[in-house]
Design a protein that fits this description.
Layout (H helix, E strand, L loop, with lengths): L4 E3 L13 H11 L138 E3 L6 E3 L11 E3 L11 E4 L5 E4 L2 E2 L3 E2 L3 E5 L4 E5 L10 E4 L5 E4 L2 E2 L4 E2 L3 E5 L4 E5 L10 E4 L5 E4 L12 E5 L4 E5 L10 E4 L5 E4 L13 E5 L4 E5 L10 E4 L5 E4 L12 E5 L4 E5 L10 E4 L5 E4 L2 E2 L4 E2 L2 E6 L4 E7 L8 E4 L5 E4 L12 E4 L1
């Protein structure tokens, strides 16, 4: 499985900084930074339909499904009119004398009935699905635990029956871990977040890097009580805990962290010190020793730049802000073999708040960002050619944006989503870059306009969008959504336990995603962490 890392984009455009310099840059950036996990009991009852008729009228209860002796898949539905008083289904087999419950394996048919005339309990017929009831009705509320029957075990979910009216309700599996929202026979998988151990130190603007061991290195950042942080810690996915590791040589935040081919982690640039010094210094974390050590310094001090590991093992550092808070066009390469940085060709446009994505052909796509201290927000994009050491323009984005996310999809295309527009308003729009044509094209928009969120490519090819900030009042989100490349659309999937912005998100070898730190609705740095499962 390829290593995939994602981190929140810096959420506040540099035009908010004016010419006050980096100290004000950090202070204002941190100042501007608002549902816990909605534990799903079993399910939610569908919306009641209108004009339910009797439970008979041609719709038959399911025939025996081999679930046990005695019990029936439901006596007469209590929704609508009782109708023909259908008797229980012939004996089947879930334990002795009445297993899955007397009046429908999935709970009693709610008022108004469920799947409509002619609808039958779906395949398997066990959990009751939408049940059988009057046309136009709504479904029964599913039981919290389908395995309560004597001698029985969890029955497979029934497919929601299709009726002549009404919408099939929501059916939940035991424990409320995953729910299936049935809409006239369609099921949609719902995912959840779960708490894990908390970090030793609350932090924002930190980095998170998946190590070859499977542990995650959390380094640096900032909090309002301790200022810029030199501390670092490791998350152990097996234990679900964080433990301190060696400190960085320099306290810093808004730096980059890049896993090198030799297993070490390159920490470069960032801001720190009492007066917000922008650093050119860099250091290496050695997982085998659990320590940081200085390496060569960058040719230019920078913050909010990008760092991309190239196929040859070098790291491309591009753009960002300099010591005066101005966007940079310069770029440089770190050579892990000798521990030094050297200049490479400059970008065609100075940028901060841009993205850098390694393409399958080895080139790097640079997109968006802010130019000239907020005077210009380019929609332009460019490609870095490692063999030539130069940048060249490619097609422009559909929408000019900054502090967006960019994710390489399995198709080789790059998904660009969210961020801020020129008016500093969060964007919901998204687009795809096709390396074969060098062009961007619009795709479906996110349900929520947001920036400062994380975007993580999952093992199944979908992308997880989590948290961030949006709205005119700067609401911090707990909500999350998934992008499905096959459909080109986003869908809301639930909420994190804690609303957060400028957190980190790291795909673990298990397929789970570690969400850590960030700022909450009160602008306080968070120590909490959670897992997307």
């Amino acid at each position: 499985m390829p290593v995939v890392e994602s981190r929140g984009a810096f959420p506040f455009p540099t035009r908010w900084l004016g010419y006050y310099g980096v100290f004000c840059f950090l202070a204002v950036a941190l100042w501007g930074c608002s549902d816990p996990l909605r534990l799903r009991t079993s399910s939610t009852t569908g919306t009641a339909g209108s004009g339910g008729t009797d439970a008979g009228g041609g719709g038959a209860f399911a025939t025996p499904s081999g679930l046990g002796t005695g019990g029936s898949l439901g006596v007469t539905g209590t929704g609508g009119v009782a109708g023909d008083s259908r008797p229980s289904a012939p004996a089947s087999s879930l334990g002795t004398a009445g297993s899955m419950g007397g009046t429908d394996g999935g709970g009693q048919v709610g008022s108004g009935g469920a799947s409509g005339v002619g609808g039958s309990v779906g395949t398997g017929g066990s959990l009751g699905g939408a049940g059988a009831g009057g046309s136009g009705g709504s479904p029964a509320t599913s039981p919290p635990d389908a395995s309560a029957a004597t001698g029985g075990s969890d029955a497979p979910l029934a497919t929601a029956g299709t009726g002549t009216g009404g919408t099939a309700g929501t059916i939940g599996t035991t424990g409320g871990m995953i729910s299936y929202a049935g809409t006239t026979g369609t099921t949609v998988l719902q995912e959840i977040f779960a708490a894990t151990g908390s970090m030793a130190t609350a932090r924002i603007y930190h980095t998170a890097t998946l190590l070859p061991s499977g542990d995650v290195l959390i380094a640096g950042g900032y909090n309002f009580s301790g200022g810029n942080l030199a501390s670092a810690e490791l998350y152990d996915p097996n234990a679900g805990t964080f433990t301190p590791t060696g400190n960085m040589t320099t306290a810093r935040g808004e730096h980059t962290a890049t896993l090198l081919g030799n297993g070490k982690v390159l920490i470069a640039g960032g801001v720190g010190g009492e007066y917000g010094v922008v650093y050119a210094s860099a250091e290496l974390y050695d997982p085998s020793a659990g320590t940081f050590a200085a390496t060569g310094s960058m040719t230019t001090a920078r913050i909010s730049h990008t760092a991309t590991l190239l196929p040859g093992g070098k790291v491309l550092i591009a753009g960002g802000c300099d010591v005066r808070g101005g966007p940079l066009a310069s770029a440089e390469l770190y050579d892990a073999a000798n521990g030094t940085f050297s200049a490479t060709g400059s970008m065609t446009v100075a940028r901060v708040g841009h993205t850098a994505t390694l393409l399958p052909n080895g080139e790097v796509l640079i997109a968006g960002g802010e130019e000239s201290l907020g005077m210009l927000l380019p929609a332009s994009a460019e490609l870095y050619d490692p063999s030539a050491g130069t940048f060249a323009a490619t097609g422009s984005m559909v929408v000019a944006r900054q502090y967006q996310t960019a994710t390489l999809l399995p198709s080789g295309e790059v998904l660009i989503a969210g961020g801020y527009d020129f008016s500093d308003l969060p964007l919901a729009s998204a687009e795809l870059y096709d390396p074969a044509t060098g062009r961007f094209s619009a795709v479906g928009s996110m349900p929520e306009a947001r920036a400062g969120y994380t975007a993580t490519l999952l093992g199944n090819g979908t992308e997880l969008i989590a948290g961030g900030v949006g709205g005119e009042d700067g609401e911090v989100f707990a909500s999350a959504e998934l992008y499905a490349p096959s459909a080109g659309t986003f869908a809301t999937i639930g909420s994190m336990i804690t609303a957060r912005v400028n957190h980190t998100a790291t795909l673990l070898p298990s397929g789970e995603v570690l969400i850590a730190g960030g700022a909450d609705v009160s602008n306080d740095a968070l120590a909490s962490a959670e897992l997307y499962q």
